[in-house]
Amino acid sequence: MQVQVVKSKIHRVKVTGADLNYIGSITIDEDLMDAANIIQGEKVQIVNNDNGERLETYVIPGPRNSGEITLNGAAARKVAVGDVLILITYAWMPIEEAKTFNPSLVFPDEKTNLLK
User: Does domain 2-95 match CATH 2.40.40.20?
Assistant: First the structure.
């Protein structure tokens, strides 16, 4: 049996931009991506703590050490600059492996979105 578990989480980052005229996705500072073991194009769930919205899209890397968190395309309508988000990825694995798996959890500085 396979189960889906949390693979990684970037906890409490602030939206730095919302670009409605982009083709889609979320742009994440590549340093945050590396710390959370998230790759370009990976599906990510976005949970908006400020308005309760939940959505899924894919990740594109943003400039390193920028703290950038930009929602692009239609997802830009679901956030406002300054909203606090939780970004989550999931992975399928055998249940026995899942019992001992440790996700990558990242807690950036809440003011700058940079790694502490």
Answer: yes
Q: For the CA atoms of 75, 11, 80, 34, what is the dihedral angle to 10 degrees?
A: -60
- What are the sequence ranges of the domains in the chain? 2-95
User: Tens digit of pLDDT for each residue in 67-80?
Assistant: 999 999 999 999 99
36 is in an annotated binding site: no
Residues annotated as catalytic (active site), given as ranges: 25, 58
pTM: 0.96
How far, in Å, are 5, 40, 64, 99 from residue 55 at the CA level? 17, 18, 24, 27
Q: Is 75 annotated as a binding residue?
A: yes
Type of residue at 20: L
The reported pLDDT for the residue numbered 23 is 79
Nearest to 38 by CA among 76, 3, 90: 90
82 assigned to a ligand binding site: no
Residue located via tokens 């982009």: 22
Question: Which stretches of the chain drop beneath a pLDDT of 50?
Answer: none
